[in-house]
Structures are given as structure tokens and as C-alpha cells.
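Write out the 3D structure for:
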Amino acid sequence: MNARENVINDAICPAQVRAGRALIGWTQDKLASESGLPKRTIARIEGGESSPRSTTITAIRTALESAGVEFVPENGSGAGVRLRK
């Protein structure tokens, strides 16, 4: 994992946010709307440009999980996302 793919909170990395959004077909605008965060915040997080507060990560995680995304923690082969069964 490089500096841009750093873990941002509870095993959620920028790539997981991007992948989770892609799994459900959401744009950054849609995630911003559903999470109550500015689009620029989403873009910075996905780009690994910021170290967000836990409340910001909670908002993103809650929005994506409510839409059916499940975050998979690091298990030796990398962290990931999947759709809830």
C-alpha cells in the first residue's frame, strides 16, 4: 500500500471508498448527497489527500453500507468491498 492508499480509519482506505461507490454505481455527487458531506471532501479522501475525522468516515461508511456495500478488512490479501448478500 503506498502513501496515497493509506488506511484512513477502521481498515477503510481510499480505494475501498472508490470501489464501494463503483459497486453501487454512485458518483461522488451521489455519495456526497447521501453522506451529507461536500463533494470536495469525498474527492480528497478518495485521492488520499486528507486524513479525515472519524465522523467523516462514519458518514461515508454509513451511506455506503445503507446502500448494500460491505467493507472487508485486511486479511493478508488486502482490504476490499463487496455487496451484501
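Residues 1-9 have pLDDT under 50 and may be disordered.
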